[in-house]
Amino acid sequence: MKIIFRANDILEAHIVSGMLNSQGVDTYVGGHYLQGAVGDLAAMGFANVFVDDEHAELAEQLLQDYQQAEFIDFPLADEEGLAPAG
């Protein structure tokens, strides 16, 4: 197995893991048990996403696409306070 992504926290690791899983890449999220040591350890950088070596290249490409994606801010309401149709 190979570390494919070093997350800031366990939540980010699971988001990335879910994205990879949805594309057919099996993952393992490590670092769950280190959460309790926050205070003794740095609060960030202990959660990692692992993939099998044979899926590493695909996972790296998917992560690159994910990290380069643009954020689209959809309005929750228009100027009159109404939700957009659709």
TrEMBL record:
<feature type="domain" description="DUF2007">
    <location>
        <begin position="1"/>
        <end position="66"/>
    </location>
</feature>
<dbReference type="InterPro" id="IPR011322">
    <property type="entry name" value="N-reg_PII-like_a/b"/>
</dbReference>
<dbReference type="Pfam" id="PF09413">
    <property type="entry name" value="DUF2007"/>
</dbReference>
<dbReference type="InterPro" id="IPR018551">
    <property type="entry name" value="DUF2007"/>
</dbReference>
<protein>
    <recommendedName>
        <fullName>DUF2007 domain-containing protein</fullName>
    </recommendedName>
</protein>
